[in-house]
Structure formats: structure tokens, C-alpha cells
Specification:
The complex is a heterodimer. By secondary structure, chain A is an alpha/beta fold. Chain A has a single domain, classed as fumarase (Alpha-Beta Barrel). Chain A is 22% helix and 28% strand. Chain A has five helices and seven strands. Chain A is globular, with a radius of gyration of 15 Å. Chain B is α/β, with parallel strands linked by helices. Chain B folds into two domains: 100 residues, no CATH class; 125 residues, no CATH class. Classes of the chains: A alpha/beta, B alpha/beta.
């Protein structure tokens, strides 16, 4: 099924998403990949506040290439999600409802997706030039020193993704 | 004896880093276009047509095909009658990479130390392989390698008794394991024989071979064809969402090995199989 959603991604919106749905996302989402995840978890372990509110938000596992003059962002496709598995259940417990990446998730993440009623989307790997066209604004909001791995706030318009794992734990890769 | 100045090497490597990241070679491009027509699944067809559109945007607007513009792997075939003047050759190759990645708006994806992980901010150093050959030319191949697929690559130290069936099983095992993580449709580079490191290097080099060519040895050519068919029956499909296009090609290179061994390396590459070659 094709469907259009707007952020924030509330639990009610997650309810309607099924594994295999083709979804166009519009609104604010955030980027974070390996180094930013590691730092977020360290921040939480130190008892400090995260630089973004995770509640009803979506994290896009992305480290873009640099923008040329006049471009919002460079190439902007998904990175492999499994590398974030170690950190993900903690972030889902804090209210994160959506993740965009590519590739398999481990059992702990799938269980956490079911427990927290969240959703894992895939964007098309290796289509970074095409996906960059859906990004209308990009701003580094934290961890600037990490370069491409900094946390960015993105405004996206009809970003095409596919529901891989839905809130019931149905998994499109295994279907 | 012919003299080549390192300035020329720097300039060519810089240009190849940029061009390889913006436009795929004709053979890879054509395989993706053919696959988009022949794919059996509707979703798979849609994904392949998006890859086609992605290639057009990349070329027309100078946006890298993929945001992972890779670690720069450089193969140098240096004619033994060439004299290189200017700076140290390794420094020159890295200078070409540095200029290409900074001036070409490519992503800086290299960390200085595998554990401490501080970004070098210019994508150096590259991975450089030298080969001394006859003649007075230098052949340079730049192959930026993304790590989504690199992470799913494998080496198998098989026993001689495992034979060709063992090799087939190893290739299928690596491809199944890579699945949706390594951005299918893949190009599968295979090295058979040699030593532990030699077979890994051959599997990398195999990724730079034209996809329309086959190994000249008959049984290896047959193996390439058979494995491509078998892989495309695994139903991994474009982006791992099922379908008949799991790989675009299987490229195999073999080398003599020890009486006790049968090393096999499978270097996985996504559909963005980037490589540019020039002879100077």
C-alpha cells in the first residue's frame, strides 16, 4: 500500500503502518549514525540530556556527502542499520518511534520495536543523489566535530521509504 | 626509459576519484538498465528504475551516486622502464586522493586509527596496491569502495577436498549473508587460490574487471555464469526486497596455490561498483 505521513510520528500513525507499505514522509527528521549513537548513549550513561527530544521522532541513519554551493545537502542515502543495533533499544525506550536505514536488525531491536510500538523503514541504498532531492533543509544541531556523522535536523518532503519491520514485528526481508 | 612526473599522477588520481563517484562505467550502467527491464517483481522494477534515475541526477547535477564515496582503493601497474620523478610515489597517490575528495565534494569516510576513530578529514590514506610490469607506462585504476558491502565480504580457507562444490557453497554463503545489508543488486568479486591475502586481493581486483568480460579459463567462465544464475534464484532481489535481480555479475580470478589449501575470498560490492582506469 502507498501512504503519506507527516512527522511527528505518533504511536497512532505507527498503528496504521504495515510491513511492505511504501511510505512518503514529510516533516522534520534527524540524522545519526555510528559515532553519534555512541556519543548519545555515553551522554545518557553520564546522566546528561540528549541534544534532541526523541519522543515521536524519526532517526535517519545517514552520513551525507558535502553540499556544493547552492545545494541543501550532498548525496543522502541510508547506511546499514545493523551497526546501530547495540544502541537502538535504549533510544526506542526513550520514545523514538521511527528509524530509516537499510539491512537487517537483530532480535533485541525487533523485540524493542514490538514492545515500544515503533517502526523500521528502509530507504533505497545507493540512491543518495535521488533521495537528496527530498531534503529541503539541513542543519547540524549537535556533535559538529563528527563531520559527516554529526546530528542533523532535516526537513524532508515525500521522502520515499518502505516499512520493513512493523509494530507487530513482521519483517519484509523474511517474508 | 620514460620519465613520468608525480604531478601527472596526482592530477589523474584526483580526476578519477571525482569521476568514478559521479558516473558508473558503461558496463555497470548497462547491467542496471537491463536488469530494470528484466526484473520479475514490481517493487524490484520500481527500485531499479529509481537507481536509473539516481544515476542520471548524479551525472547531471554532480551529486555522488552514493553518499558513501568510499575508501579510495588504487591499483598501480608500473612499467619497469618508467622513471618516476617529483615526490614520493605513495605521498603523490594520497595527494591525488586528498585533492579529489576535498575539491570534488566527496565524503570523508576515513578514520586515522581503527580503535580511536578520529576522522582524517581528507579521506586519506588510500589503499594502494603496486604491481611492477613490463613496459614504460603506468596504469592507474581508482576504485572507491563503500563499506556497506565491504563489511559483508568473507574469506574461506577451504580444504582441497572441498573442490569446486566447496567454492560454490562459499560464494552462495557470502551472498546470502550479505542479503539486504550490502545494497543488492551486487557485483560479486571472487578470488580463488594463492594465500590468505592473495585471494582477498584478487577478489577486490575482480570487482574492477569489465562486467561484459569473462575469465579466459573455460571452467572459470562457466563457474561465473552458473553462480550468477544461482545467486539470482536466491530471491534476495533489489534492495533485498525480493525479486530476480540479486547480482549483476560474478567476476572470478584464480591463482596457483599450496598443495594443502584452497583459499576463497568473496568481496561483495553493491550496484555502485565504481572504478576508473587510465594509462599514463
Amino acid at each position: 500500500m502507498e501512504t503519506y505521513i507527516e512527522t511527528p510520528l505518533t504511536r497512532e500513525k505507527v498503528e496504521n503502518l504495515k510491513s511492505g507499505d511504501y511510505v512518503y514522509i514529510t516533516g522534520t527528521i534527524y540524522t545519526a549514525r555510528d559515532a553519534a549513537h555512541k556519543r548519545m548513549i555515553e551522554t545518557l550513561e553520564e546522566g546528561k540530556k540528549l541534544p534532541l527530544d526523541l519522543k515521536d521522532n524519526i532517526i535517519y541513519y545517514l552520513g551525507p556527502s558535502p553540499a556544493r554551493e547552492g545545494q541543501v545537502i550532498g548525496s543522502a542515502g541510508p547506511t546499514t542499520a545493523g551497526r546501530m543495533d547495540k544502541y537502538t533499544p535504549k533510544l526506542l525506550d526513550l520514545g523514538l518511534t521511527g528509524m530509516i536505514g537499510k539491512g537487517r536488525r537483530n532480535e533485541a531491536v525487533i523485540e524493542s520495536i514490538k514492545k515500544n510500538k515503533a517502526v523500521y523503514f528502509a530507504a533505497i541504498g545507493g540512491a543518495g543523489a535521488l533521495l537528496s532531492k527530498c531534503i529541503k533543509k539541513a542543519e547540524v544541531i549537535a556533535y559538529d566535530d563528527l563531520g559527516t556523522e554529526a546530528i542533523r535536523k532535516l526537513e524532508v518532503e515525500n521522502l520515499p521509504v518502505i516499512v520493513i519491520i512493523d509494530k507487530e514485528g513482521n519483517n519484509l526481508y523474511e517474508s | 626509459m620514460r620519465t613520468v612526473h608525480t604531478d601527472e599522477i596526482i592530477k589523474n588520481i584526483k580526476e578519477m576519484c571525482i569521476s568514478a563517484n559521479l558516473e558508473l562505467s558503461e558496463d555497470v550502467k548497462n547491467r542496471i538498465l537491463e536488469a530494470s527491464e528484466n526484473e520479475s517483481s514490481e517493487l524490484g522494477k520500481k527500485i531499479l528504475s529509481q537507481l536509473k534515475e539516481n544515476m542520471e541526477i548524479a551525472k547531471n547535477e554532480s551529486i555522488p551516486i552514493c553518499q558513501d564515496t568510499g575508501m579510495a582503493v588504487v591499483f598501480l601497474k608500473i612499467g619497469q622502464d618508467v622513471h618516476i620523478e617529483g615526490m614520493n610515489l605513495e605521498d603523490a597517490v594520497n595527494e591525488g586522493i586528498r585533492q579529489g575528495y576535498t575539491e570534488g565534494y566527496l565524503r570523508k569516510s576515513v578514520v586515522k586509527d581503527p580503535i580511536l576513530r578520529e576522522n582524517t578529514k581528507d579521506n586519506t590514506p588510500g589503499i594502494i596496491h603496486y604491481e611492477i610490469v613490463s613496459g614504460e607506462n603506468i596504469e592507474i585504476t581508482v576504485a572507491p569502495k563503500g563499506f556497506g558491502s565491504e563489511n559483508m565480504s568473507k574469506v574461506y580457507m577451504l580444504k582441497p577436498a572441498d573442490g569446486i562444490e566447496g567454492v560454490k557453497d562459499a560464494i552462495l554463503d557470502a551472498v546470502k549473508n550479505a542479503g539486504p545489508n550490502a545494497c543488492p543488486p551486487f557485483v560479486v568479486g571472487v578470488g580463488i587460490g594463492g594465500t590468505f591475502e592473495k585471494c582477498a586481493l584478487m577478489s577486490k581486483k575482480a570487482l574492477t574487471r569489465n562486467l561484459n568480460e569473462h575469465n579466459e579459463v573455460e571452467y572459470l567462465r562457466d563457474l561465473e555464469i552458473e553462480m550468477l544464475e544461482k545467486i539470482n534464484k536466491l530471491d534476495i532481489g533489489p534492495a533485498g526486497l525480493h525479486g530476480s535481480t540479486t547480482a549483476l555479475a560474478v567476476n572470478i580470478i584464480a591463482y596457483p596455490t599450496h598443495i594443502a589449501g584452497l583459499p576463497v575470498a568473496v568481496n561483495m560490492c553493491c550496484h555502485v561498483d565504481r572504478h576508473a582506469t587510465r594509462v599514463i
